[in-house]
Each structure stands twice: as C-alpha cells, then as structure tokens.
Design goal:
- It is a single chain.
- The chain is α/β, with parallel strands linked by helices.
- 40% of the residues lie in helices and 17% in strands.
- Strands 6-5-14-16 form a 4-stranded antiparallel β-sheet. Strands 10-11-9-12 form a 4-stranded mixed β-sheet, with helices on one face.
- A hairpin with a 6-residue loop joins strand 10 and strand 11.
- The chain binds zinc ion (2 copies).
- One zinc ion (ZN) binds next to loops.
- The site of one zinc ion has 8 residues, from loops.
Length: 834
C-alpha cells in the first residue's frame, strides 16, 4: 500500500468528526463553486494590487517569465506559475508590496509557424502587413485562453501590470535598448557563419539548436587522382561543392607526404588544400575529413585558422546554389542522392557505412540546421563570459546545482549571440544604411518606435558621404531581445526613478530548468551590458513535469495532461498541492492523479475539522489564559509554534513540499486525530467553563494559524475557512500578516503532551482490540509504565478517564530492568477492564 493510500484508508476508518453536532457550513466543500466565488471576491477587492506609492512596505519584485502565447497552458507552465504564486502570496503576508506582473512574449518564430500551420500558408504568400495582422490576431486569442487558465489556477498576478511585447509601447523600448547597446559598442553588424533553419529561413541562436541522435550514411569517396589521390569519409556529399580543404591528423603517417598540397574535388573540380590539425580524429572514417564552408562549427574554425576561401553552396532555403545545372536548386537530400549516384558511376565510392549522428535541428520545426554566412547583427557576448560566471556566483540559486547550468553554457559558447532574424512578426531593427558608404543611421529616441522596413530614414542624407541613397534594415530582432529586458521595463526604465531602485534588479527570477541556458543567460548579458548588474537576485528554478508513466510529458506519448482539465477535475487547490508536494524544488516531478485525489481528501478533512470547530465554539473569541491550559492544550500550542517555525523556514528557502507536508501532517494527525479526540469530552454541555474556553481558544488558534500557513498553497480553501470567523476575518486572509511563532511555550509541554497522547492512542487500540467501541464505557484501565511517567499520568487522570470513558485508573510501575512487560515501541502496557 502506498503512502497515499494508507493515509486515505486511515481517514475513512475514523468516525466522522462531531457527527452528533449541528453544522453551520454546507456539509461538503464544492471546490468548483467555492473557488470561483473566491476568485471573484479577490477580483472585486483588487487585493493583489501593487502600489508604487506605498513607502511603508518594502517592494518585492518578481520578473515573471512572459510565456509564448501558444494557447496551451500545460502542466509544466502550471508548475512554474504555482511556484511563483506560492512566493508572491507568502511575501504579501510577510508585509511586502509585491510586484507580480504578467506579460506575453508575442513575437517570433513560434507564432509565425503557428500562423503558417493554422492558415496553411507560408510567410511570403501574403503581404507582410497582412501576415503580421494574422499573427497579432492569433496571439490575442491565445493570450485570452492562457489568461483564463492562470486565473483558474488562482494565480495572484496584478493584471494592471499586464504587457505584450508586440505592443508598440513595449517594443519601442526594445528598440531603445538596441540603440543604447549599439552606442556603447556591445553590438556590431558583420558577416559570420550562424546557425540557420532552411525551413524557416532565418538565423537561429545556439540556444535554439536542439541536438538529436539520427542514423546517417558515411560515404567513402576518392578525391584527386581516380587511382591514387586520397579517400575521404563524409556523411554530407552534397557539400562537395563547398569543399575548400582536407584535414588530417599531424601524426597520421599515411598522409605525411600530402600535407600542404592541393587535391581536386570530384565532380565540382575545385582545388582543396590539405592541412594537418590536432582536432582531426584519425580513427574516424579514413582519418582524412573534408572542410566545407560550412558543414559544422569545426569547419568554421578551420576556415578562419587556415585562411581558406568561402564557397556558399547553399541558399537560405537550403537548396544547392551551384552553376552545374544537374544540381542547381536541389534540396540537400536530393542533391546528396544525385551526387552519390554520380560518384558511384565514376567509381569513386569505395564503400558506405551506417553511422550514428548527433544532428543539430531547429527547436521549432526539427529541420536539420545548416551553417550559413551572411550579414547579421551580433551582440558581443563572448567577451562577457567571465563576467557572467562571476555574477552567477553572487546570486542565490534554488536549487544550487542550477547555477552550474548557466556557467557551463556561458563557457561553452564560441560564437557571439546573433540577434537578427530574417522573419516578419518581430521588433524591427531600428537602423537605416547608406547604400554608398555603408554608414549606419539610427533614429533619435523620441522617434521610436520605428519600422525601417516601411518608414523613410530619419536623415535625408548620409551624414558621412552625403548620399541620399538610404535603405531601411529588413531584418528583425530575435524575440529574446524583447523579453530579456522585462525586469528593467517593469521598473520604469528608461526612467531611473525611485521605482527603478525599488524593483530592479528583480528579487525573484522564476523559470524552468530547461531555459536557464537561454532565458537566464540572455537576461544576464543584456542587463550586464545595459546596467552593469545582474537583473535578478534569486533564481527559483522548477524541474520538468513527467507524464503519468514517468516519461517526459509529450503529446505523442499519450501521457500528456492539460492543466485546465486537471484543475476542473480536482480543483485548483488540489492541483496546487500536487505542485507543492510533488517533489523537491528544482527536480523533475511526475504528474500523479492520486496526488490530486489526496489533495482533495485533505481539503475535505480540513473542511470537516472547520465544521466541527465552528459547531463547538462561540462567536466571541476566547482569550488565551495560561493558567487554564491543560497539558494537552500546551502540547497543541507548542506543536503549532513548531509548525509555524518549520513552515516559515520552508517558505523562506522555497521548499514548498516541506511546508505543505508539515501543514498536512499537523492538521491531519496532531489536530484532528490526537487533539480533537482527546478534548471532545471537554466540549460536552455542562463542562467547566474555563476548561471549555481553553479548548475553544486552542481549536480556533490552531485552525486560524493553519489557514494562514496554508494560504500561499491553497488560497481558495484558506479564504473559505477564514471567512467562517467573521469577527476575525475582516479582510482577505491574503491580506493578513504571516503568523509569528509563540515563544512562550516550552519543550517540556510538547514532550509530556506527546507522551499522554501516545498513551491515549495505545489505550484506544486496546479498547477496540477487545471489541469495544470507542464510545463505550469501561470500568477500569490499568496502566503499567516507567516510574518517571507515573506522576505525569496521575496529574492528567481526568483527561485519561474522560477520553477513554473509564470509571477508574490504576497505575503500576514496571519492575526495574524489565522490558518484556512493555509493548514494542511504547512506554506502556495497558489493560482494559470492561
Ligand atoms: Zn525551423
Ligand atoms: Zn554614405
């Protein structure tokens, strides 16, 4: 039996709390209705509002990642947003003025690809303006859907701060940041090979290349003299046209004499220089490899190192651009087949082998990427590696291992960040060029936003040569250029007022482990270049959600769960409990329906406890009076004090699973199983008033504290329970202060109270072992125990007798050094006399 099942069955075997008492609450908690009502209440009272003028509270700023509006808010997103919301709600209760904006990263390839798929067109089939309009419209629809999902989940973002990167008011700031970086020398335009998606016909960044294992064929081809020459193995014969050199290992004896000579490339006839380089693996193929411009990154390095020529054999849509009419215009795959056939006809292929390849593919469309050289805009990120590493070390990373991801990534990059894209739906690059002398013309800040694809140059003539032949840049910016400055934009940049100091750098940067190397990296380099500081202080990283079968969640695996569906089925608070308890922060967590079920059961238990307490306490709040508190009361309050400490520490360190487990254990076991069962008799009519008041005080104190501690994770339920106490709940529980642990209680009460409760639990088991119901009266209870416990039990005789419904109690001392008398694991032996 799993942990969850055993807890659940344990619960159902218990008698329902206070079944003979009157209720003021509906019998069951209907999460669908209740949660919708409370969300409406929050909306009406605008309780998540960030107040920029509030000087009395310290600001806490969250730089929420703006998701791509894909329309699909999957459980991975939901996990990410749950973490953010736990922190936001906790910090509000801690007295912070929480800045929790939500935005949308609208631009870029994902949206364009979706428009192309949705309307079954290619980007060039319609005029650019119309294409952009289609993108905007689809984006708007998707945003509406995702917003609904976030609301359904009870996310407490401040919608007054919503932003969309496609709005002119936003992208004018992207353009401004471009101009500032250009002026400060962080950007340059140049021709350098970049990763290129031939399907999407755009440059892509290294971070957008996904490596996949695929099977390929290795062709052994003879170069030069058909009988002598040199044999070369390659998986890409289609690049023969771009072959500019041949590389061998310096220690490879069989090629010693040929190094420094040239060899004729078959079919295309150009001469390729043979060079020797340590990077060649002499065991791969024949030990001689071709250098093509560009087959891979090594080719790029060798071309530069050995000053080889560049032959551009591929067009931007991945077709062969050679003069030879047999191959001109063929796609890479077709060209490969035809060239191999030609080589075979000439007897130049000696053998073929199947080989395993690690191929770089486009993150959006899985097309193998090519390396293409053409003029692009770059940000000088390579120079910043050491700075990024240094700053990474100054920040708080949750979990700590995620820091290394950023460092490894920064250190692995050997190219600058290519920030230009050859697409349409994106922020235009705000520059014009003089076609005569190449001077770059940038607009004044007040003219932004601009669209050089349509707008005329802000200058009539080139400031350098006076030519009036000016043209606007047709390329656009990488979408990360929009979204990697959100923290500064929220803080009011370019206005560096008071607000900027309050909100920047952001206190919290929450995102998934998968985008540490993209998102967190780009944020860091942008901010270091623009502001000289990291844009965040603490990084809260969530793991990935695995499917119900333990594999990564994917639509094609059939293990995919839509967040909305799960929330509608189990309720947002149950879903949020899964997010909190599913695993340690930063580690992958599986999606489990039974975790949601357990979450629901817990809420039902809490609701029943609330009903019991409401039915048994007066509306007026009993005062705490230390002199009337029994040992069990002191134990409860002491345990509550420890719970508050533990949960507070867990929230401070973002260990949500620890927080939730502690709250659930306390509610279920300490409060419901132990305390309530032990004090029921004190709530009966005719009981001593001081005793009654002490019990009522403890019950309410425990319940209201649980409510507050649970509020960040189960905001709806906490609010619902909290409002059952109108004299206490004058506002939302989310506007309340976080509970402070009570310092006046001692450890001895906790220890002794626990001992007493253990005895009661033990005696109850004995009672039911005898076939007696818990409510039936018994004549006598005989307890044997250690000498040191006798006094404590005598003192609490009344509690023991009343709880167990016994007429009398006999205490006996264990004989010294006798262990047989005790039951394993307890300090007692109990005998029931019916
Ligand atoms: Zn692509
Ligand atoms: Zn000029």
């Amino acid at each position: 039996m799993s942990r969850l099942e055993s807890k659940a069955s344990e619960d159902s075997s218990k008698t329902e709390l206070g079944s003979s008492l009157n209720y003021t609450l509906s019998k069951s908690y209907d999460s669908v209705t209740e949660e919708a009502n409370w969300r409406e209440y929050w909306r009406q009272h605008d309780i998540y509002h960030f107040d920029p003028h509030d000087k009395s509270r310290k600001a806490f700023s969250i730089d929420t990642p703006p998701p791509y509006p894909s329309g699909d808010f999957h459980v991975g997103n939901a996990l990410n947003w749950c973490y953010i919301d736990f922190v936001a709600r906790y910090k509000r209760m801690r007295g912070f003025n929480v800045h929790f904006p939500q935005g949308w990263d609208c631009h870029g390839l994902p949206t364009e690809v979706r428009v192309e798929q949705t309307f079954k067109i290619r980007k060039n089939d319609v005029p650019p303006d119309q294409f952009v309009e289609m993108c905007r419209k689809l984006t708007g629809e998707y945003i509406a859907k995702m917003k609904q999902s976030m609301n359904l989940l009870g996310i407490s973002s401040d919608w007054a701060l919503e932003y969309k990167t496609m709005d002119p008011s936003y992208y004018k700031l992207t353009q401004l940041s471009f101009i500032e970086l250009f002026k400060s020398g962080h950007l340059y335009r140049g021709e350098h090979p970049v990763n290129w998606c031939p399907r999407d016909e755009t440059a892509i960044a290294e971070a957008e290349v996904v490596y996949q294992e695929r099977k390929g064929t290795l062709y052994y081809m003879r170069f030069g003299d058909p009988t002598g020459g040199i044999e070369i193995a390659s998986t890409r014969p289609e690049l023969l046209a771009a072959c500019v050199g041949i590389a061998v290992h310096p220690k490879d004896e069989k090629y010693k004499t040929i190094v420094g000579k040239t060899v004729t490339v078959p079919i295309f006839g150009q001469k390729a220089l043979v060079i020797s380089d340590d990077e060649v693996d002499p065991r791969y193929g024949t030990g001689a490899v071709m250098i093509c411009t560009f087959g891979d990154k090594t080719d790029v390095r060798w071309q530069m190192k050995y000053h080889l020529p560049v032959i551009k054999a591929l067009t931007e849509n991945g077709r062969l651009s050679v003069d030879d009419p047999r191959f001109k215009g063929l796609k890479a795959e077709e060209a490969r087949k035809k060239i191999v056939a030609e080589l075979q006809a000439k007897g130049r292929v000696s053998k073929t082998e199947t080989t395993q390849q690690n191929i770089g593919t486009c993150w959006r469309c899985q097309t193998p990427v090519e390396i293409i050289s053409r003029p692009q805009w770059f940000m000088k990120t390579r120079d910043m590696t050491q700075k990024v590493v240094d700053w990474a070390g100054k920040l708080v990373w949750v979990p700590p291992f995620s820091k290394q991801r950023l460092i490894d990534w920064a250190e692995s990059l050997d190219w600058d960040w290519v920030i230009s894209r050859q697409r349409i739906f994106a922020t235009p690059i705000p520059v014009w060029y003089c076609t005569k002398c190449g001077t770059v013309i940038i607009p004044e800040e007040s003219k932004l936003p601009v669209d050089p694809r349509k707008d005329t140059s802000p200058e009539e003539k080139c400031p350098e040569c006076g030519s009036s032949e000016l043209r606007g840049e047709m390329d656009v910016l990488d979408t990360w250029m929009d979204s990697s400055i959100t923290a500064a934009i929220h803080a009011g940049w370019p206005n560096k007022s008071d607000l900027f100091k309050q909100l920047f750098p952001a206190d919290l940067q929450p995102n998934g482990l998968d985008i540490v190397r993209t998102w967190d990296y780009y944020l860091m380099v942008r901010s270091l270049a623009l502001f000289g500081t990291a844009p965040y202080k603490t990084l809260l990283i969530n793991g990935m959600v695995k499917g119900t079968d333990g594999r990564m969640m994917h639509k094609s695996y059939g293990n995919y769960v839509v967040a909305d569906e799960a929330i509608k089925k189990a309720g947002a608070d149950a879903f949020r409990q899964w997010a909190a308890a599913g695993g340690s922060t930063g580690y992958d967590i599986p999606f489990r329906w039974n975790e949601l079920e357990y979450g629901k059961k817990f809420l039902t238990k809490l609701w029943n406890v609330t009903r019991f307490i409401l039915a048994n306490t007066a509306e007026s709040i009993p005062q705490k009076n230390l002199s009337t508190l029994s040992l069990i009361d002191r134990w409860l309050l002491g345990s509550l004090h420890n719970l508050t400490k533990e949960v507070s520490e867990a929230f401070e360190t973002f260990q949500f699973n620890t927080a939730l487990e502690a709250i659930r254990n306390f509610t279920w076991h300490a409060l419901a199983d132990d305390y309530l069962e032990a004090v029921k008799h004190r709530l009966q009519p005719g009981r001593d008033q001081a005793d009654l008041k002490a019990t009522q005080y403890c019950l309410r104190e425990a319940l209201l504290t649980i409510c507050k501690l649970l509020a960040p994770i189960c905001p709806h339920m906490s609010e619902a329970v909290y409002h059952q106490f109108p004299s206490t709940a004058t506002k939302s529980v989310h506007q309340e202060s976080w509970p402070e642990p009570d310092q006046t209680l001692d450890e001895a009460s906790i220890r002794n109270g626990k001992l007493l409760l253990d005895l009661i639990a033990h005696a109850r088991r004995e009672k039911s072992a005898k076939g007696l119901s818990l409510g039936s009266n018994i004549k006598r209870i005989v307890i044997s125990t250690e000498a040191e416990h006798l006094h404590l039990l005598k003192e609490n005789e009344e509690t023991i007798l009343r709880t167990l419904k016994a007429d009398s109690m006999d205490l006996e001392r264990f004989p010294p050094n006798s262990n047989q008398a005790k039951e394993p694991g307890t300090g007692f032996k109990v005998e029931i006399v019916a």
